[in-house]
Amino acid sequence: MPLSEHGDYENPRKSPYTVERYESGWEMLYMRKLEIDKTVKKWTKNHGIVIEYITEAGNKRGYKPDFLVEKIDGQKEIHEVKGGQFLRNPDTIRKHERAKLWCKQRGMNFIIISKN
User: Fold this and answer.
1) In whole numbers, what is the pLDDT of the chain averaged over residues?
2) Domain limits at 67?
3) Is the pTM of this model over 0.85?
């Protein structure tokens, strides 16, 4: 079960910012993982990326992915931290499909980080 706290991750080494805000305990733990991952050059949640998608009800929405990650080899990726219980939600599926296409058009990867 994800931790529900919100907070500030202060002084990350691989972020261009002195503070990165997390929306869940899982995000905070993932930030720590990104910090020690030797394949990660830099990461941020403050990326400003908003990907438009259409909800199941037909409404236009903007989806802000969790992390923009740049690997040591220069590859850029969008990483989304999502609880397994949400992966079958129709709107989550729509967001992720749109994000995959958005990334593909830019030569990027879309990665879902999930625990059931």
Assistant:
1) 93
2) 7-113
3) yes
